[in-house]
Amino acid sequence: MTETQDAPVRDGQGTLPAIELAGVVKEYRSHGEVVRAVKGIDLAIGEGEFFSLLGPSGCGKTTTMRMIAGFEEPTEGEVFLHGERVTGVPAHRRDVNMVFQSYALFPHMSVFENVAFGLRRKGVERSEIARRVGEMLEIVDLAGREKRRPARLSGGQQQRVALARALVNRPRALLLDEPLGALDLKLRQQMQVELKRIQREVGVTFVYVTHDQSEALTMSDRIAVMNDGRIEQLGSPREVYEHPAGRFVAGFIGTSNLLSGEVTEVAAGRAVIAAGEGQRIVVPLRDGIPVAAGQRIELTVRPEKIEIATRPPADRDSALRGTVTEVVYLGTSTNYNVTTSTGAEVVVFTQNATGAEDIAVRGDGVWLSWDPRYSYLIGAAS
């Protein structure tokens, strides 16, 4: 066993993480073959953190959460909760609770009885149950609905009952497996804000599993972007959005334009890609990624960072010509699809702040330009 697996890692202040995974691997047997769902994860989640595991279906995020909860055991590696090794400890003896997408409320019980269920099983006194359930219903904004049955509640209210039931037991961590997946878009967006508020009020560590990038960006303190059983990038929402670690993260988080070309010049910490008369792309170099003249590189730039105009831009280091292939009006913004003279497909988002007409229409020739600091180097082009 490695040193990391023998003892949890403390942060700079000597505080143990709420949850730590050390070299965790999970294997299954399928049709006689070994399938690795999780391929060696090292992860530390801080006390009181809202932490999201984000990735596409089949990336290993739910399996990772189930190993934290104790519903699955790692094939290799160790799981620690608040500094205590819990590998092999059954789920009911781990100081965590889990909320599922289905809510799993008791239909024959009132809201109060649903929330009080776990406390009654623990033998908590009646007066203490009333006090704790009342406090929790206040926090989740369900005070006054204690006597209602789940069937008389909206989807968002049912979700809050499930949250209250999990939190009333005062777990040290709450695990949430895509709990908003059954809600419609508008209610899901409202509940994202509510979940963050509730987490901030109760101060409990939340670990949230989702494939929805907007959920993770809205609520999380940090995000682990997973793919094929591994963590591709770990960081704050701003870090993973503005500075994706590679092609997968750039494409999975939000909308991103992936561009490539041959480097014609490297100087002053920047690489230049020439793309024809008056056209070029400038990208700042990143530590650890070697770039030389003559090499083909790949970079990304977000659609909202690009300006679109029918005239050549003045004093812009990064500028490309193109033709508008589609214009999509979305109310708050307009999206332009542009095919550049180099053959690249680029998406541009513009805010409709003034209510003016479209900058261009389908078939128009346009110029795209942006500040080089918004170009982010991915690496050598494949």
From TrEMBL:
It comes from the Bacteria. It holds the Pfam family TOBE_2. It catalyses: ATP + H2O + polyamine-[polyamine-binding protein]Side 1 = ADP + phosphate + polyamineSide 2 + [polyamine-binding protein]Side 1. SMART domains: AAA. One of its GO terms (cellular component) is ATP-binding cassette (ABC) transporter complex. The keyword Translocase applies. One of its GO terms (molecular function) is ATP hydrolysis activity. It is an enzyme of class 7 (translocase). The keyword Transport applies. Gene3D superfamilies: 2.40.50.100, P-loop containing nucleotide triphosphate hydrolases. Keywords: ATP-binding, Cell membrane, Membrane, Nucleotide-binding, Translocase, Transport. Residues 19-253 form the ABC transporter domain. Its EC number is 7.6.2.11. InterPro entries: AAA+_ATPase (IPR003593), ABC_SmlMolc_Importer (IPR050093), ABC_transporter-like_ATP-bd (IPR003439), ABC_transporter-like_CS (IPR017871), Mo/tungstate-bd_C_term_dom (IPR008995), P-loop_NTPase (IPR027417), PotA-like (IPR005893), PotA_ATP-bd (IPR017879). PROSITE patterns: ABC_TRANSPORTER_1, ABC_TRANSPORTER_2. Part of the ABC transporter complex PotABCD involved in spermidine/putrescine import. Responsible for energy coupling to the transport system. The complex is composed of two ATP-binding proteins (PotA), two transmembrane proteins (PotB and PotC) and a solute-binding protein (PotD). NCBIfam families: potA (TIGR01187). Belongs to the ABC transporter superfamily. Spermidine/putrescine importer (TC 3.A.1.11.1) family. This is Spermidine/putrescine import ATP-binding protein PotA.
